[in-house]
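Example record

Each entry pairs one chain with its bound ligand, NAP.
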Amino acid sequence: MKAVKAYAAKSADTPLEPWQLDRREPGPTDVEIEILYSGVCHSDIHTARNEWKGTVYPAVPGHEIVGKVTRVGESVTRFKAGDTVGVGCFVDSCRHCRNCNDDLEQYCENGHTQTYNSLSQDRKTITYGGYSTHIVVTEHFVLNVSDKLPLANVAPLLCAGITTYSPLKHWNVKKGDKLAVLGLGGLGHMAVKLASSMGAEVTVLSRSKGKEADAQRLGAKYFQLTTDPENMKSMAGSFNYIIDTVSADHDYNEYLALLRTNGVMILLGAPPNPADVSAFQLIGGRRSLVGSLVGGIKETQEMLNYCAEHNISSDIELISMDQINEAYERTLAGDVKYRFVIDMKSLK
Ligand code: NAP
Ligand code: ZN
Ligand code: ZN
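C-alpha cells for the complex follow.
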C-alpha cells in the first residue's frame, strides 16, 4: 500500500478538496503509473454531485489519464518502467463473458469496473480515479500512448476521444454523410474533429453563438443555433446522423425531427432524468434513437493510434489541481475550450 495525494468530493454539495488514498502494491499483472495529466469529463461532475445517484464519498473522479509507468509486476509483458501510458474509463472486467471475449469490456455482462466510484472485481473495493498522483491498473486495461502528440492534449482522448470514435466506427460514418454534433463541449469537439477526419460533412448544433468560429476551425462545415425555433424548423430532415453530447435534460423529439429517413440519433450525453420520446418521431422516418458507451480496450488503442497518425488531439485549458472547482463551474456554464486538463505536477 502506498499513500498518494488526491482531490476528492466529500459530499454532493461541497467543493472538491485535498485528500489522501491508498494504492495497492502492484500485483503480478499490475502496472503502477505516475499520473502526469488528468482530463475533466462532465461525468466527473455528474458523479461528484451525485446526479446519477450511487456516489460513494469520498469520491475521486478522473478517467482521462496519461502518465509514466513507475513499476510493473513480474508477469507484465507489454510495459516497463518509463513507458508513456494511458488509462480510460474502466480498469477491469470479468474477462470471460461474451462481451469481454468480443473486446467490448465496457459492456461486460458481469459488470465492468469503472476507473472511479465503482466496485473492483472483488466486489468490495471502491475505485478512485485520476485526480491523484498515482494509479495501479492491471495490464490489460493500460493503453500505449505515443509521444508524438503533446501528452496533456492526449489525455481527453481516453474518454472524450473513444466515446465519439466508437459510434462513428460502429455506425460506419463515412465520406459524404451529413452528421450533426449537438453540444460543443469536450465530447462534442472531439466528435467534430473525428467525424470530419473520416470525411463526414459536419454541422455543429449549439446554443452558444460564441462557438461558431471555433466550430469551423475544428472541422465543421456549418454552425446552427438551437435556440432559434425558425432555424430549427429550417433544418427538418437534414441529417443522416446526430451525435448528441448534451449533459443536461433536453427534448429528444426536437432533434429527431432533424433526421432524414433512416437517420440515426446517437445518445452519448447522459442527462440525469429519463426523457419522453414520441413514437411518431421514429415511425415517421424509420429513424433510430440509439446510445453508446465509451469503447473497448482494443478499440481505444486503435483510436489512440488513429489520432497519432492523423495528428488529432483535444483543445485544452491546462489547470492546476486547486482550480478544479472553478473548472467545474465553467464546464457547467458551457464555458470550456474545450476540455480542462489537470497538470498533476500541481498536486505533488
Ligand atoms: P461538456 O464538456 O460539458 O459539454 C456538454 C455540452 O452540451 C456543452 O458544452 C453545451 O454545448 C451543451 N449543453 C450543456 N448544457 C446544456 C443545456 N442545458 N442545454 C443545451 N445544451 C447544453 O460535457 P462532456 O464532458 O462533453 O460530456 C457530455 C455528456 O456526455 C455528459 O452527460 C457526460 O456524462 C456524458 N458522457 C457519456 C459518455 C458515454 O460513454 N456515453 C462518455 C463521456 C461522457 P453548447 O454550448 O455548444 O450548446
Ligand atoms: Zn468521461
Ligand atoms: Zn465480462
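Residues 161-291 form a domain with the Rossmann fold fold (CATH 3.40.50.720).
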